[in-house]
Amino acid sequence: MTTNQPRSGYTLPVFACAAAMAALEYLQTRNQSIEQVSIDLINPAETVNILIEQIAILTDNSALAITRSDPGDNLDLTRNTSIWAMVEWWDSSEPPPTPPCQGGAKEQSSPPYQGGAQEQSSPPYQGGAKEQSSPPFQGGAQEQSSPPYQGGAQEQSSPPYQGGAKEQSSPPYQGGAKEQSSPPYQEGAQELTPPTPPCQGGAKEQSFPHYQGGAKEQLPPPYQGGARGGELSDTIFIKGGEGIGYDQKTGQTAIYRYAKTLLLANIEKILPPNKSILITFILPQGKRLATRTSNAAFGIVEGLSLLGTTGISQPLTVPEQLEQYKIQLQEKAKKFDSLVFCIGENGLELAAKMGISPHQMIKTANWLGPMLVCASLAEVKSILLFGYHGKLIKLAGGIFHTHHHIADGRLEILTAHCANLGLPTFDLQKVFNCSTAEDALQYLRELDAIKGENWVIRVYGEITKTIDQRSQNYIYTHCEKNIKVGSVMFDRQRKIIIKSENADIILG
């Protein structure tokens, strides 16, 4: 009997890039017969054809194209959602369409008075207010500062939780990429950067030669500043429109490295010399769909992210995908004694920024238990667990399938560790009644700041010890093998909270 293999599709950045290419081509040629465009995915190194659903001229200087998401055989909330890209000619002699955003806060002061005459130029940028200057650029930075943390109270800026479980930190699923935040990797293939030479065979690599001891960016994305948009090059500007999320803290639009790299590589091929363009991306259903993701837990609000490190959307929710992960693990175990398990895209990207070789990374999705057993059977000597604290904390409670529909308990586990270390009852109640693990972490950070204590390090240090020990016990129970397991936890801003002692040993 023939078994049908799950069909892969493409991630959101691919459809966004295709829409932008079609709009640019139409703006130049007025060719109404554009039914598809060819996209170089870069990762993987292949060219694919993406269908164009609709296309239209808006003005003499702008055009709009629409594609529709097809993530393949995934239970993906972005399935069939439309992706719009508006391309307009931009005068490169003009200033960039978006002023730099200084940390998301509103500008408090005016520029110094320079003389007797009244200021004739545009008013200073007011943070959350829409930008009034630069005519082609019609959107601005929405309000980006978060309200102060109110103890156990729910976060005011997050969309209401739509499911049964408290925690919202399960990574959003964006066409094969569950993880959204984060600026990002929302679960796929190896990170494009930093560049790492392929393994040449021979003896297994036992260390992490590229590890830099911190989350230092080794190959920054083309654009580093600006609210809700920015420049990819001297001639290509991008902007997040309706339904594209933005980072609540920095104000930067949630269009990340792979999407930018994909756009730059493909758009430059068809952009005429001495021409500049502004691309505005719109997801009409983005705001609504974002309420069903954990984007808000990572500080991404008002929409979805264009996130990922690959153009291929692999089916992550079918049993066959677990088997594919196991095959990848077995192949990498032939070359390395130490492997890094990343639950989602954020972990993959952050690990790469720290200098860990992508060749040693394995994406596990929520299947940590089966993957730990598979690694032990493949004779791996040590495993580094790398993940968002709201996910990885479950292992401290003996939960080795981390999907929130299977089991939760994050706040209960966190509260139990706090109690064991002597946190006062009043504060325990605050932690337990937080809406998310991220809120609870913030509460502990505020306690440390106010009282000059170190609850975050103490509590999360104990949690990582428990994770390491329970993971090692899990492996021994199933395989009777002793494998060193270490853990690294990060927050929604993708800042490292803690590395366990075992993690430091494994990283060398």
Automatic annotation (TrEMBL):
Q: Which residues cross the membrane?
A: none
Which stretches of sequence are listed as region Disordered? 90-231
Q: Does the keyword Transmembrane apply?
A: no
Compositionally biased region (Polar residues): 107-124, 131-160
**One example GO MF annotation:** cobalt-precorrin-5B C1-methyltransferase activity
EC number in record: 2.1.1.195
Swiss-Prot/TrEMBL catalytic activity: Co-precorrin-5B + S-adenosyl-L-methionine = Co-precorrin-6A + S-adenosyl-L-homocysteine
Please give the coiled-coil regions recorded for this protein: none
Source taxon at top rank: Bacteria
- Annotated metabolic or biological route of this protein: Cofactor biosynthesis; adenosylcobalamin biosynthesis; cob(II)yrinate a,c-diamide from sirohydrochlorin (anaerobic route): step 6/10
* Pfam families with a match to the protein in the record: CbiD (PF01888)
**Keywords of the record:** Cobalamin biosynthesis, Methyltransferase, S-adenosyl-L-methionine, Transferase
Q: Which biological process, per GO, is one annotated for this protein?
A: methylation
Q: Which PANTHER family match?
A: COBALT-PRECORRIN-5B C(1)-METHYLTRANSFERASE
Q: Which family does it belong to?
A: Belongs to the CbiD family.
What is the name of the protein in this document?
Cobalt-precorrin-5B C(1)-methyltransferase
User: Which organism is this entry from?
Assistant: Planktothrix agardhii (strain NIVA-CYA 126/8)
Source species taxonomy: Bacteria, Bacillati, Cyanobacteriota, Cyanophyceae, Oscillatoriophycideae
Q: Which gene encodes it?
A: cbiD
